[in-house]
Amino acid sequence: MKKSLQKQSGSTMIYALLTIVILSLIAANVLVNSTTRYNVSSKQVKGWKEALYAAEAGGDVAFAEVRKLVTTGLPFSAQFVADGWTVSASPTPGPAYVKGPITLGENNSLSATVTVDSATYTNGYACYRIRSVGTAKLFGLPRVGMDDRMNSTTKGDSLIRKIDFKYDHFLARYGDGDGNNTTIQAVSNPQIARRVETVAVPQWSFTGALKATASFSGPGSAGWIDSYDSKNGAYYFAANNPLDPHYSDATNGDVAVGSSSFTEFGPIYGNVTTNGGNVTHSGANISGTIDNNVPFSIPPLVKPDTTGYLPGTAGTLNVPAGTTPSTPAQYVYSSLSGGLTINGQNVLPLLPNGGKPAETYVTIVVNGDVGGTITIEQGVNAKIYFTGNFSDKGNDLVNNNVDGATGIYNVDGTPSTDYSRAGHMQFYGVSPTDGSTQTINITSPGNVWATFYAPSADLSMIGNPDIFGAIVCKNFTGNGNTGFHYDKEIIGGIPIDYQVASYIEDVR
Asked: Does the N-terminal peptide bond of residue 75 adopt cis geometry, omega within 30 degrees of 0?
């Protein structure tokens, strides 16, 4: 009996060892598979996040390029080509400019390809659509499953898959993103791609009544600063009458000063902000709020690229038909002091209101000083840049437009809705490259309906002229009876920067 029990005990131990070995092999296999799948999953999650980082980095590169349009003065095409972007006909309507792949990350495992095109226009200036594709490499075998065939002849990844093992699923289904140029394109290695789209829109030169970056001293002791809305017709003083129907439009004559230097003589019907000033309502005639902790800065204004501009004619300039806010007639002058009359276009005879003044657009660059009589006829929208100084009497700046756009029409014969008389005559002081200060002097007699954007200029009003419009300058001085009346209908002006207005991820 004892020998038999010993034999049974030995067999049991063998069976137990075999069972342990088998279970260990099963456990090891499970562990290996679990570890492999975990590593793959963690790499895919990491790649998913990094692909978005790469896409956003590409978008930042493009946005920085768009902002250069303000600082260089070059047109869209010249700016992007000069910095090595490639012209592409897609996406429509084109042209678009492409850069990439821009390599990023460790061992260049990330990349971004970005496309920029002008998708639409506002106030005659483009808004830019930025599309950026960020790609993260996934190292390993391209193990494809869930194959549903991208087309009738080629097998590939599932179109619902967010990982491209063999083919770019987005190009196969959506092409350039607008459904154009769909194609089956192999990928060099497994990848995750994410796409973001942003829209860059202009930030305008005129966003308020009067801005002075360095100092403000005004208005004249017998004048005032207020506002009006030219959509309601010509200006009249309503800022002291709460019962007037246009009272709410009369108290937006805001003054912003980018320093602590603020001196007030006449009343200001609006808000006042300074950067470190000590302005209070005590002893001051300011109707709105006061804030002495509002810093701001305004970038220098660069001269537009005048490639393709026509030489300006002295005396009379007849602007041809067919101009638009985004395609104005363009002329360059060496100086502007002998007098200039700018004539516009009329509505075609067979259209409604045929023969009447139509909105006309012209941009003039003066490589020197501005003075003498400048006259713009009804419908003319003139943007006049100058690199020198500006000096004129109020009645030498003749703006024959009218507030409310009465009697002015669009080229198709419909009534114009560009209500601002002042907005039709705009002056832009180009910042001197040597850091010096421009001067803009408006003297008696006569009033001025115009806008002035000159961030490097000292603007002074002497005598009794009033300015109707909007002002941006370095130092502002007004004395005597001088006053300023901000027209709330002035829109835009020119872009001084761009900002991102929308951001989406294309999750298709």
From this structure: no
Phi, psi of 415 (to 5 degrees): -60, 140
Farthest CA pair distance, the chain: 136
pTM of the model: 0.82
Q: Structure tokens of 408? A: 């002015």
Q: How wide is the angle at C-alpha 283 spanned by C-alphas 282 and 287, nearest 5°? A: 75
Give the separation between CA 425 and CA 449, rounded to whole angstroms. 7
Successive 10-residue mean pLDDT values, the chain, 508 residues: 54 77 74 56 72 92 94 89 87 82 83 89 89 84 52 50 75 77 81 90 90 95 95 96 96 96 95 96 91 93 94 93 92 93 94 95 96 96 97 96 94 94 97 93 96 97 94 94 94 88 86
Q: How far apart are CA 90 and CA 452, in angstroms?
A: 39
Q: Rounded to the nearest 5°, which phi and psi values hold at 6?
A: -65, -40
SS3 267: coil
Six token digits for residue 420? 């601002």
C-beta separation of 430 from 449 below 8 A: no
Cα–Cα dist 349/370, whole Å = 36
End-to-end CA distance of the chain: 78
Bridge-partner residues for 384, per DSSP? 364, 427
Is residue 352 reached through a cis peptide bond, with omega within 30 degrees of 0 on the bond before it?
no
Nearest CA to 75 among 301, 298, 307? 307
Parallel, antiparallel, or unpaired: how do β-strands 315-318 and 340-343 relate? Answer: parallel
| Alpha helices for 330-447 (secondary structure H) | none
CB 184 within 8 A of CB 150: yes
